[in-house]
């Protein structure tokens, strides 16, 4: 059974975080992470909101637009796998500042795209930034939350992703009608760049990072954080010691004997979830429009899916404090698969919003729980790397899903048949998640 190894965390973290009241400064860290995740959700799904207009203006077919979706998710995969682990070396805060800058800038410039290659390059940069940042957000939320609420904190901030996508639908629909698809990217990019100020002033460096890596001025930085948290200052940094110090922040550590089986199952679970999740995130508006409904209805269908995801993630966060996490995830994924099967085998279009809301509730929550499993599965110094690789390899599914969806749409496969095809990975993912046995 995979257990949390937070008990090997150094005494400073146990005293300041696990054994002390939750402070306003900690709340601001979690809130900033939540807002950044909301903007990520808006930034990534902006393409799905605008895909119909972009296709018409730039004369791009569904299979070519599928390449743009897949390039963005490939960037997220590579960022999570190869750039996110750098936060274990340069620090969580520095990584966040770099990522927010790149996401906001590339997002804003996407509004000026006039060629396919413009979209490919800019969406790849956005994807790299988002993939690199997600692991740091989950890790820093975990590190500044007490053990008793750690799973809830990680799950709650990741709820920002579908929440941002949901709010983005209400923003995108009137913006597109009034100003065109370009305005969606200008709004998302500008808002993301503004968050640089919040990250700079509200998000401190990880105490665990300062103790482990001991960069120049580490003691002074640690005491500044302690003052912000309202805690007593220290005269020297405690030794991390113990088994945790033996782990190096690289993928080889994740495949050592004590982690190997759980790591592989975690990766496969994320992969299966993301094939279906990113098919739906990318193509629901286009599928709805192709079924004969309006562009606004297509956007609001995406809102229903993502809105259901927000509620599902919050419910999962509450349930995770009472029930084994991996069993919850498995149950949620199975239920999402059943919802997709029912949609495909009945006259689902008549109850489109209801079906999408239910599927979003269980699928988004089930996948988000994978983050919390990774946060509890690995020790602190491996946490960003572990989360990053789970997200990264899982995002290979996010590359496959939108690309396959584009091919199906180009081949005139119906929405109902597409849902039937993409229900299968969720059944497999549910089985794998259930087997992880993480509480």
The CATH architecture can be given as Up-down Bundle
* The first-level CATH class name: Mainly Alpha
Distance between the termini: 9 Å
Any low-confidence stretches, pLDDT <50, length ≥5? 1-8, 242-247
Sketch the topology as an H/E string, one letter per element: HHHHHHHHHHHHHHHHHH
CATH-derived topology: Growth Hormone, Chain: A
Got a strand count? Answer: 0
Helix/strand-derived category reads mainly alpha
Shape: globular
| Helical amount | over 70%
Instruction: List the quaternary state of the chains.
Output: single chain
Number of helices: 18
Mean pLDDT: 85
Count of individual domains: 1
Rg, alpha carbons: 21 Å
- In CATH terms, the superfamily is MFS general substrate transporter like domains
Strand content: under 5%
What's the story with the biggest beta sheet? none
Word description of this protein:
By secondary structure, this protein is an all-alpha fold. It has a single domain, classed as MFS general substrate transporter like domains (Growth Hormone, Chain: A, Up-down Bundle). It has helices at about 10-20, 25-60, 60-85, 85-90, 90-110, 115-145, 150-160, 160-180, 180-200, 205-215, 220-230, 250-255, 260-290, 295-320, 325-345, 350-375, 380-410, 415-435. Helix 3 runs parallel beside helix 6 (about 115-145) and helix 13 (about 260-290) runs antiparallel to helix 16 (about 350-375). The radius of gyration is 21 Å and the shape is globular.
Q: Can you tag this structure with a few keywords?
A:
single chain, 439 residues, mainly alpha, Growth Hormone, Chain: A, 0% strand, disordered N terminus
């Amino acid at each position: 059974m995979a257990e949390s190894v937070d008990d090997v965390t150094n005494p400073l973290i146990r005293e300041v975080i696990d054994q002390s009241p939750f402070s306003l400064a900690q709340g601001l860290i979690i809130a900033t992470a939540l807002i950044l995740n909301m903007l990520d959700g808006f930034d990534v799904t902006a393409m799905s909101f605008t895909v119909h207009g972009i296709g018409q203006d730039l004369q791009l077919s569904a299979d070519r637009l599928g390449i743009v979706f897949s390039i963005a998710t490939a960037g997220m995969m590579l960022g999570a796998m190869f750039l996110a682990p750098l936060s274990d070396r340069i620090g969580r805060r520095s990584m966040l500042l770099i990522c927010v800058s790149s996401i906001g800038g590339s997002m804003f410039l996407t509004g000026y795209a006039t060629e396919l290659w413009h979209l490919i390059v800019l969406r790849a940069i956005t994807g790299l930034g988002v993939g690199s940042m997600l692991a740091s957000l989950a890790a820093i939320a975990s590190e500044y939350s007490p053990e008793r609420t750690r799973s809830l904190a990680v799950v709650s901030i990741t709820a920002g992703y579908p929440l941002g996508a949901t709010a983005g639908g209400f923003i995108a629909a009137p913006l597109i009608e009034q100003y065109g698809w370009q305005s969606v990217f200008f709004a998302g990019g500008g808002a993301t760049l503004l968050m640089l100020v919040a990250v700079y002033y509200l998000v401190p460096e990880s105490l665990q990072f300062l103790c482990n890596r001991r960069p120049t001025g580490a003691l002074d930085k640690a005491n500044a954080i302690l003052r912000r948290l309202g805690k007593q200052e220290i005269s020297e940094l405690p030794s991390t010691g113990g088994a945790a110090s033996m782990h190096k922040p690289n993928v080889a550590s994740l495949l050592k004997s004590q982690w190997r089986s759980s790591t592989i199952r975690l990766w496969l679970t994320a992969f299966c979830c993301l094939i279906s999740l990113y098919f739906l995130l990318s193509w629901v508006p286009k599928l709805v429009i192709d079924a004969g409904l309006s562009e606004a209805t297509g956007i609001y269908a995406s809102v229903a899916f993502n809105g259901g995801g927000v509620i599902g993630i919050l419910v999962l966060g509450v349930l995770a404090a009472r029930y084994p996490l991996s069993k919850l995830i498995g149950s949620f994924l199975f239920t999402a698969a059943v919802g997709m099967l029912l949609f495909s085998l009945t006259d689902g279009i008549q109850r489109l919003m209801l079906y999408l809301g239910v599927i979003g509730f269980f699928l988004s929550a089930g996948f988000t729980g994978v983050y919390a499993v990774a946060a509890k599965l690995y020790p602190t110094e491996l946490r960003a790397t572990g989360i990053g690789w789970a997200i990264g390899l899982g995002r290979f599914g996010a590359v496959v899903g939108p690309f396959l969806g584009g091919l199906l749409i180009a081949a005139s496969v119906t929405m109902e048949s597409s849902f039937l095809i993409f229900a299968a990975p969720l059944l497999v993912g549910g089985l794998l998640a259930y087997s992880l046995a993480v509480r």
